Amino acid sequence: MTTPTRTELDAFFQQHGVRDVECLFPDVSGYPRGKLMPAAQFAAGAELRIAQAIPMQCVTGDYSYDPIFPDADPDVRLVPDYSTLKLSPWSSVPRAFAIHDCLELDGTPCLFSARALLQQVVQRYTAQGLQPVVAPEIEFYLTAPCVDPAQALQAPQARNGRAEAGQSAFSLNMLNELAPFWNQFRDALRGLGVQADTWIHEVGATQYEINLVHGDPVAVADQAFLFKYVAKEIAIQHGLNAVFMAKPIAGASGSSMHLHQSVVDTRGRNIFSTEDGTESAALHHFIGGLQNYIPDLTLIFAPFVNSYRRFVRGSQAPINLAWGHDNRTSGLRIPVSGAAARRVENRVAGADANPYLVIAASLAAGLAGMNEKLSPSAPLALGANAYKLDTHALARSFLPAHEQMSSSDDARRLLGDAFVTGYCAVKGLEYESYLNEISAWERRFLLPQV
After folding, report:
1. Which residues are within 8 A (CB) of 277 and not within 5 positions of it... i.e. 6 or more apart?
2. How would you class 222 by CB atoms within 10 Å of its CB: exposed for 0-12, middle for 13-18, buried for 19 or more?
3. What count of Cα atoms within 13 Å lies in the side-chain half-sphere of residue 155?
4. Which of 241, 30, 260, 33 is nearest to 140 (CA)?
5. Distance in angstroms (rounded) separating the CA atoms of residues 11 and 48
6. CATH 3.10.20.70 occupies which residues in the chain?
7. What are phi and psi of 209, to 5 degrees?
8. Do 22 and 88 touch, CB atoms closer than 8 A?
9. CB-neighbour burial class of residue 311 (10 A; exposed 0-12, middle 13-18, buried 19+)
10. Is 85 left (phi over 0), alpha (psi -120 to 50) or beta?
11. Among 382, 379, 424, 377, which residue's Cα sits nearest to residue 399?
12. Radius of gyration, CA atoms only, the chain
């Protein structure tokens, strides 16, 4: 996009009465951070800086000053992507926002920026005359406010005066509950240019899913990032919580972020299909790359202790990286489609994962598989159940996934040595914080019996 002139920016802000601009970027968890800048200064192109460690801030608010981070904690620049400049639908006064890139002072991308990492992976495809195309499906819950974190989340009161109970998958009546939230939320997404395909009520009580329209990976990641931001902000305005934890409620369905991926060449032809419409070698190599490298990258797809509660047999959440056609028991699924729409659905990531990192890791693994001509396992037989396989290729808990990624040369080759070191340091700090928490399970069983 052409950089708008100061006059054009001033006119835009004056037209809409904008006083301030949110200069935001996704941190390592996909959480929006940044600074609020007066609109006049933004239009004037004022330089904006932030500490280098901020993109790697833990969810606890802590920082890991691992050896990869200089003790001086130098600045990085925040540079706006003007194509993302929009009016903010969550602000009580007219406000704009723009997603920013994190650059070192010498102009190189910050090694700890999730958005920069995804841009670099996409550039690897571009260098080979290829363009990846992605579309995520994002699940989340709407719950009543959580004023006491020690208590379980509860479904909110609905229009009939009662909280939703039971399983209501694909129910249109239940999709119409909490209408004031949905009306404002959908208007906000439309104004932001977030392109939604379909909406459904999922299995859990007040659990929902949105499918984003397929497109350029960075643009789609931006939309997923904004989707989560605006959902949380508007939910609060309606006395609700928008919850993107992978397993927010014990005994209820987990929330995923399935990722559909395909690759086209310079002619716009889907390289996962041959000229006669059958599956190509590139498709199989892409799957081979996912199977070979995702085990070392599981911590990207399941970044928190809670994430691993989602990997439950028989739950349509994967426990391995088996692949099959139209098979939701597998970690990698090939949906039924025409040749032009042939794609791989990566079902590993939870809704809690950073969309920029999920897309980057999955595309990096798939490209490596194509370049190295890796062969996948045999596909599941028609109607087979991947939960009955002996193999459990995905880590069952946080610590093995952390140890596997931190010691993986392949993870560092695909995502960068500095990024993997910094990412694992952040995750290690979060795990230490978790270990310091005394849980309800411990009080329930250990208090009376030990």
Report:
1. 338, 339
2. buried
3. 19
4. 241
5. 22
6. 6-112
7. -140, 140
8. yes
9. buried
10. beta
11. 424
12. 22
Task: Say how far apart CA 137 and CA 149 lie, in whole Å.
Answer: 28
Instruction: Classify domain 121-426 at the CATH superfamily level.
Output: Glutamine synthetase/guanido kinase, catalytic domain (3.30.590.10)
CA atoms of 106 and 280, how far apart (whole Å): 43
The number of residues making up the chain comes to 450
Outline where DSSP puts E strands in 332-432: 332-334, 344-346
Residue 263: strand, helix, or coil: strand
pLDDT digits (tens, 9 = 90+) for 308-348: 999 988 778 899 999 999 999 899 999 999 999 999 999 99
Q: Which of 127, 143, 121 is nearest to 236 (CA)?
A: 143
Phi, psi of 139 (to 5 degrees): -105, 150
Pairing of strands 207-212, 257-265: unpaired
pTM for the full model?
0.96
Q: Cα separation of 88 and 48, whole Å?
A: 20
CB of 64 closer than 8 Å to CB of 422: yes
CATH 3.30.590.10 maps onto the chain at 121-426
Q: Classify 291 as helix, strand or coil.
A: helix
In 3-state terms the chain splits into helix, strand, coil percentages (rounded to 5) of 40, 20, 40
Residue keyed to tokens 């835009």: 12
Task: Look up residue 120 and give its two tokens.
Answer: 């670099």
Pairwise CA distance, residues 323 & 205, whole Å? 30
* pLDDT tens digits for range 266-276: 999 999 999 99
For residue range 101-135, list pLDDT tens digits in order.
999 999 999 999 999 999 999 999 999 999 999 99
Fold annotation for 6-112: Ubiquitin-like (UB roll) (3.10.20)
Buried b (16+ CB within 10 A) or exposed e, 235-257: beeeebbbbbbbbbbeebbbbbb
> Who's near 164: CB < 8 A, 6+ residues apart?
155, 158, 174, 177, 205, 206
Two tokens at 69? 């981070």
In the numeric block, which tokens belong to residue 366?
Answer: 């798939």
